[in-house]
Please model this.
Amino acid sequence: MTPDPTEEDSLAPDQSTDAEVMLTDVVRQVVVSPSAAGQRIDVFLTQLLDGYSRQQLRDAVQAGSAEVDGRVVRPSHRLREGQTIRFRLPGPATDDTVPENIELDILYEDDGMVVVNKPAGMVVHPARGNWTGTLTSALAYRFASLSDIGGPTRPGIVHRLDRETSGVIVVAKTNAFHLNLAQQWHDREVQKEYLAIAVGRVDRDRDRIEAKIGKHPFQREKMAIRERHESSRPASTFYEVLERFTRHSLIKAMPKTGRTHQIRVHMEHVGSPILCDRLYAGHSEITRSQLLTGRSLPDEAPLLSRHALHASRLILRHPKSGQMMEFQAALPADLEAVLTVLRAGT
Model:
C-alpha cells in the first residue's frame, strides 16, 4: 500500500512537461545578436540548434537547462541584445535512477530508514523534465540498498516534497519499513508541520481551512478549490499565525489530509498565498525593496527565488521499535534572510 499523495508529498504537476527530457553534459554558449532581441528563448534555440524540435528545447528550458547572464530562465523569457546564454543540450530519457554524487543533509539514519533535510530546488525522483540531480540519484549513490516498492525510479520514496519545498523527508531502506511507513501516511498518523511566509497580514490568529481540492479547470500544472468536480477530494489544513509584518505573515501549517499542493492552494483560497509561489501567488521571486515597499529598485537582485514553504517538523512511529520519533529541519538561509528583512522593516 502506498500513501495518499499530499501537497507536500506530491509529484508536483509543475515539475512535469509534455515530453520526457534528460539533459546531457554538452553545454553551448552564445551571445544574443541584435536580430534575436525580443525573441522567446525557446524559439531562438530552435533556430540555433539543428536536430531538435521546439517542444524538445522548450521542455529542456523548463527543466532548468538555460541560463541567461547566469540566471535560470523559463521558455517564455524574452532575450535582449548582448545577453549570454548557456544551454545544456537535451539527450535521451531513461527509466533508471542514475547514481550521482550529490551532498545530502542527513538528519537520522538506521538500518531501515533515513531522514533527509531536502534543499529547495531538488526534485525528489526522476520525472519528465527532471532526470538528473534528484534526491533518488543522491540516495542511490550513497546507500547500497533501498526499498524497491516504488519501482526503479523511486527507490525508497515513501512520500515526496514539491521541488521548491525544503525540509524533512523520510526514505525507506527496506520494503518492510516502506510498507509500515506508507500505512502510517495512509492512516493519517504522521504529524506534519510546515513554516511558510504568506503574502498579506492574515487576519485570524489560527483557523482550519476545509475546502475540497481538485484539478484546475484550465491550467494542467495547477490545482484549485473545486467542490463538485469528479477530481475533487476533501482537504483540511490547520494554520496558526506566528508573526505578522506590514505586508506579510509567518505561519505554521499542519495539513491533516494530503492533497497535491494542499497548503499552497488553501492559503491562496483565504487570500494569503505563499510568497514567491509562481503558480498561486503570481510571482516567483522578490527583492528586498519589494518586500518592504512593494516596488523593486532598478537592477536589484532577488532576495528569494522559490516559494517560501519549508517542511520543518515530522512526527511518526518507528516501524521497528514502535516509539514515536520527531525530526526537525531548521529554516534554511534564504527564508531566514527574508524574515530578517521583514522584522527589521516592521
Residues 1-22 have pLDDT under 50 and may be disordered. The chain has two domains: 22-91, 96-345.
